[in-house]
Structure formats: structure tokens, C-alpha cells
């Protein structure tokens, strides 16, 4: 194993791990576990599975993410970003199909890490990440409206937003005041504690208060006990999901979507942790760790695992120093489940819906959203297209189209940064403009396919108009095959007209690319500077 694939856990223990760091990690792990306990169950329920599967995901997947990942501070578990994909997979292929898709996605993530694709996942444009996160937040909130208000819908609640909203509106007369009150109590408690006692576990306290209110006031609201019969007190034995070639083929697109979103979400979370700590994660190790965690989660009946930004940030703020904090967070969750499983039956579903409402609100990066809208029309288009496609079409489609638009925007901007213009003077002395048989053009920036048409039209106009054509490439930092082919075409035109071409100041990589595309020959001379070209044209020096 090369150093590039060594998990951060090993790196931390190589540095030296003492009791002081263990105490800090234990406190941080406990803090994150308190946050993750209600959140994991809420995400599982919103995803269409039982709450215990959310805990299995956080315990097994979270432990493996920290043990084998490439970040010191990453906390893994079920994420709100996956709710839409998981719910649609369960609705189409059942729980067994979900678990199989989760494990297949783990293989994809491991393969992506081994192929070092983690370096490229980070190139997702910022407007795309802001747009799809906001879109997911809208969908999550919409999925919780029926639980927030205690609505009784006729038939199954539709998945697509355009179908869901009319169904919810039609069910408004069935509002349950008790459920709405419990949801309001949960939201108000979380917001109040966030303002007055920001270090307290607001979500857990809010859910506990809502559970007490439901039990002592004998409120007629749905709970985990009435809906799911409670949760077990231990992990199940590992087992492989049902497998058939037909099911494998059916869930393959879901697995690819899980892997794509998991890679983006986990690496984005790792980048956030880096920004908070000044550390640097290993993206390819992170993908491998995430892949193994998804396989492990599936073996124990869990579903998609990824790095979670909110819990990772909580870990950093709580003083976590190493992956040990994430592993302890998983062990604390296991202890909570073993000790308090019977109490979970009293948790009202409206309270968990309130928790997810806060989560969805926090997912929308409002300052970034406003800045992108104000700063650039192009970035605003990418942001809004991604958002609308995620909300009204499909999450994967939103990411792909948003990325394509972002790439086109980048190409357009970069093409304008390439300069090609006549050089009237150099650093050493003015050019002798009396020589009507010589022209000097300076090429600068990054010459790639996006600028080929613009630069090519300029070079073609002057390629056969002079006896000597000096192309100064000292300001050219990069050239791709398309750019080199444009210069090769200019060279062929110059050769037919008997023009000598002097290419000056080309960096080694640029020259190598040019020569590979046959920018050489008897009428081509490579020199270090325009001054050398001038001296050669004047007959004061000979070709090197």
C-alpha cells in the first residue's frame, strides 16, 4: 500500500496518540452521538425504512468511515441528501433492493478511489453544489409536511413534488392540531436553545420534551412505537441481501446514483472539515473508506453512508482531534440503542419531522445562494437550473446538467483569457517597425479548444503575409492538442508561402506538445527570446 492510500487513523497513531487526545475525542464523539441519535432515525423514516436501519447505518457505517477514511474529522452516517434517492429505491425495489444497491455503490466508490478519481470529484462547480443542496432541502421539507401537520392522505403520498403538493392541499382539512403542536414545540425548542444555549444538544432535548408531552398529555399522535413497534436493542447479525441477476440489473442505476452523490457529499464534507482545521484530507482514501463503509452498512441491514457536513462540523467544534472521535461516536450510539431502545417507542413522528425541517432549512446555504445570484449571471443560471432540475426532475440529472453548464461557462470564460496580439515592444528594446517583412505576435494565457477559433482566425490572417513570423510563446502557460493543431495549420500555410516561423520563449511542456503535433520542420526555429529571433533575422546570429 502506498502512502497515498494510508487511512488517516494509521497516520494519527504514527504521530503518537495519548490519553489527552483520547479524552478530547471521547467528549467530541459523545457530543456527535447525541446529535446523530434522533437525526439518524428521522432520516431513516423519511427515507421509507424503519428507524432502526438509520441507527445501523450510523453505527456500522460511521465506525468504518472513521476507521478507514482519509479525513481526520469526518463523521459518517445517513444523510438528508440521500432521502430522495433512498425513498425512490425502496418504493421501486423494496428494502432488499436498497441494501443491494448500497453494497454495489460501495464497490463503485472503492473502484473510484483506487483509480484516483477523488481528485476529479472535487471539480464539481460551487453553484452546482449549492443548487443541488438547496433542491434536496426543498424536497426533504415537502416530504415532512404530512407528518408536521398530522395529515391523513387518501392512498399513498405521491413522490414527485408536482403531484405531492395537490395531494397535501387536498388533505389540509384533516390537520391534527396535536401533531402540529408537537412539531411546533420541537422546532421552537431547537431554535431557542440554539440562540440561548448553543452548546446544548438542542435536537435531542427537543425530541425528549416532545416525547414527554405526548406521553403525559396522552396526545393522539403517531409515534415510533405505534408506527414501527419500537427499535431493537442490538445490531442484527450480518447477512447478504437477496441476490438475483434481475435485481442486480434493476438496482444498478440506483447504485450509480448513490455512488455519485456519496462521493460528492463525502468529499465536500471533508473539504469543510479541512477549512475548519487547516488539515488536508486524502480524497482517494476517503472514497475507499466510504465504499467499505457502504458494504459494511448493507451487511448489517443499513443503507447509504456518506460523510455528513453538520455532524462533521459538530465534531470539529466539540474538539475532536482524530478519527477516534468518529469511531467512539458510533460506539456511543450502540450503547444508547442498547440502553434506551424501549424509550424510543414514545418519540412522536411529528417531532422527528420538526427535526428534519430544521435540517432542511440549514442545508440551504442562504448567503452563498444570494451571493451567486448577485455576482454573476452565468453562475446564477447554473445554480437555478440545478435547483429546478433537482426539485422537479431528478437529482442525478440536476448534477449532470449543472456540471455541464458550469463547464461550458468555464470554457467561455477561459477562452476570453487567451491573448494573441501584435507585439510592439519587448522587455529589452523596441522592435524595429521599419522591417516590413517581419511580424511579431505574442500568445498568452491557456490556449485550448475553447479559444481555437479566435486565435486561429488571427494567425491565419498573417501567416503568409511576411517573410519572417515570430510567435512569442513566453506568456503561454498551457496548450492542448487543439491549440497545437491550430499552430500546426498556421505553420503549413507559412511553409507554402516560404515564410520562416520563429517560436520563442516556449516552456518545455508547451514545446513538447507543439513538436508532438508536428510544429517543426525546416522553416521552424525554436529560440529562447524575441531578441534572439531579431538577431537571427538581421543576420547577426545563426540558428541554434
Describe it.
This protein has 544 residues and is α/β, with parallel strands linked by helices. It folds into 2 domains: 3-407, no CATH class; 419-537, 2-Layer Sandwich (Transcription Regulator spoIIAA). Helices cover 65% and strands 7% of the residues. The protein is built from 22 helices and 7 strands. The chain has a 5-stranded mixed beta sheet, with helices on both faces. Strand 5, helix 20 (481-496) and strand 6 form a beta-alpha-beta unit. Helix 16 packs across helix 17 (377-392) and helix 19 runs parallel beside helix 20 (481-496). It is elongated and about 100 Å long. The model is unreliable at 425-434 (pLDDT under 50).
Distance between the termini: 47 Å
How many whole angstroms does the radius of gyration measure?
Answer: 30 Å
Assign an overall shape: elongated
Low-confidence stretches: 425-434
Give the biggest sheet: 5 strands, mixed
Average pLDDT metric: 87
The secondary structure category is alpha/beta
β-strand number: 7
Residue share in helix: 55-70%
Continuous helix count: 22
What portion of the residues fall into strands of 2 or more residues?
5-15%
| Major beta sheet, strand line-up | 3-4-5-6-7
Total domain count:
2
User: What is the string of SSEs from the N terminus onward?
Assistant: HHHEHHHHHHHHHEHHHHHHEEHEHEHEH
